[in-house]
Amino acid sequence: MENHDKAILAASARHPIVPLPKGQFYNYGTAGFRMKADLLEGISFRVGLLASLRSRKLNGQAIGVMITASHNPAADNGVKIVDPMGDMLEQDWERYATALVNAPSDDELVAVYNKLAAELKIDLIVPAKVIYGRDTRPSGHTLVTALVAGLAATGAEHVDYKLLTTPQLHYLVRATNSEGTPLSYGKVSEVGYYEKLAEAFVRALRGRRIDGTLVVDCANGVGGPKLSELLKYIPKDKVNFDVKVVNDDVLRPEVLNLECGADFVKTKQRAPPSPKQQPGIRCCSLDGDADRLIYYWIDPESGFVMLDGDRISSLAASFIGDLVESAGLKNDLRIGVVQTAYANGASTTYITQHLRLPVICTPTGVKHLHHVAQGFDIGVYFEANGHGTVLFSPDALSAFRNAEPQSPAQKDALDTLAALGDLINQTVGDAISDMLLVEVILAHKNWTLRDWAMTYADLPNRLVRVEVGDKDRFRTTDAERRLLHPAGAQDEIDQAVKKYKDARAFARASGTENACRVYAEAATRSEANELAERVAHIIERYGAQ
Ligand code: G16
């Protein structure tokens, strides 16, 4: 067995872990390790050790590491691991990551590393390969240096893809591991990603026109330059795609996600103040690492109107459901929708009663939704915050390609479905790919955003962030819809909800910030606001105990 002990000890001393107060631990959460960037150097080093182990355990398949804090403020950063098919790290391994990162000294770190290798029967001689990228946060440089030190100490081959959106890294991991196989996911390069999306976009449009200008707010994050790059690959002679990229300043780190981006739009329920948009213009916002997408426009009569992840989900499910029917595959393929507790009740009713599709609710975090969506032939999953995608099973993809069309209409539907299979990122929610999908659907339906918004009326809702001493005291059950701890809090929430018509509320600990989140919906806006405030006070009170 190869011994990495000396190299790990030496490198760990250069990238030490910051000790936490007694009784507190680092935790591999919803989106990996995410916190203030100055706590992350030692963690990034240790994630390098874990990624090497994971690659070796999987016979040298490439593992991805993404350095990003996505929608969080500029001072935060994060490190998360991507599995070989481009999906999130297998859940069991989150525990191993947590164990390595919390080892209290360099010696104990080496002991945990060797213990994991022995317990998991990992041959440390097998080659390991890790590929990585980062968003535009300046702290990313230090974290990459620490990560590389961890990879070098364990003798892992590593490839630096530099600045990437999170979904681009997921794409590259899958492309790397499928290269040269019949299931090749695309060329192993950033250019390969653009070429694949641009080609599938043209094919999916099938000559339809895209109306008007689309303004894309890029949260001053990595999505800005990457979207501008993608647009170069969309042939102007074939597609009239008029995109105005805004909030794409990646030179001033402090403006990242500041008063712009998908999280701002969703939580504040208003358009970014800058640049000011003209009424009627079709707009959308990405988040800091371009994995979330929210559409909106300023209506001359009703003001700001938002089309969030639930809307994208129901739009995609209805369009793909119709295509499957036209393609004559309705009885062969099971379509389902996956949501979280944040899904607007009106969207769930629309999907189950109008589209007549099954809906499954999971805890927050795309890793949960992704897993459940894989149980369908066509699994549509989106969080209300705009994070999601559509997964096609191998059977579905082969049916799109190989079914014998009985009419030109069937052929058209099959060809469109096959194009969607390439357009939609199959590894993870991808704001840029999802945006192209929405544009394709609107063009096919010849719809404006107003037509899209008319499909159902959202229940008024409100999201509130509540600062608490220790968010981990708040534990939930029933897909995060009910609090188990602290005792008594859920009873008080139930009492508050009873006071309002058609109301629902829940509270949960954030997986990405040290805070709790409260969601409330009710028959009117003022009632939704009032209920959210009441529940927030309950949480504040229990949080202070
Ligand atoms: C991450 C996850 C999302 C999840 C979000 C929840 O988003 O990838 O699936 O919805 O965290 O955050 P919280 O637990 O704080 O409510 P992102 O875009 O920040 O990576």
UniProtKB/TrEMBL annotation:
Cofactor: Mg(2+)
Function text: Catalyzes the conversion of GlcNAc-6-P into GlcNAc-1-P during the synthesis of uridine diphosphate/UDP-GlcNAc, which is a biosynthetic precursor of chitin and also supplies the amino sugars for N-linked oligosaccharides of glycoproteins.
Reactions it catalyzes: N-acetyl-alpha-D-glucosamine 1-phosphate = N-acetyl-D-glucosamine 6-phosphate
Highest taxon of the lineage: Eukaryota
Gene3D superfamilies: Alpha-D-Glucose-1,6-Bisphosphate, subunit A, domain 3 (3.40.120.10), Alpha-D-phosphohexomutase, C-terminal domain (3.30.310.50)
Binding site for Mg(2+): 70, 287, 289, 291
CDD domains: PGM3
Domain Alpha-D-phosphohexomutase C-terminal span(s) in chain numbering: 463-537
EC number: 5.4.2.3
Protein name: Phosphoacetylglucosamine mutase
Keywords: Carbohydrate metabolism, Cell wall biogenesis/degradation, Isomerase, Magnesium, Metal-binding, Phosphoprotein
Pathway: Nucleotide-sugar biosynthesis; UDP-N-acetyl-alpha-D-glucosamine biosynthesis; N-acetyl-alpha-D-glucosamine 1-phosphate from alpha-D-glucosamine 6-phosphate (route I): step 2/2
Domain called Alpha-D-phosphohexomutase alpha/beta/alpha: residue spans: 57-96, 128-179
A GO BP annotation: carbohydrate metabolic process
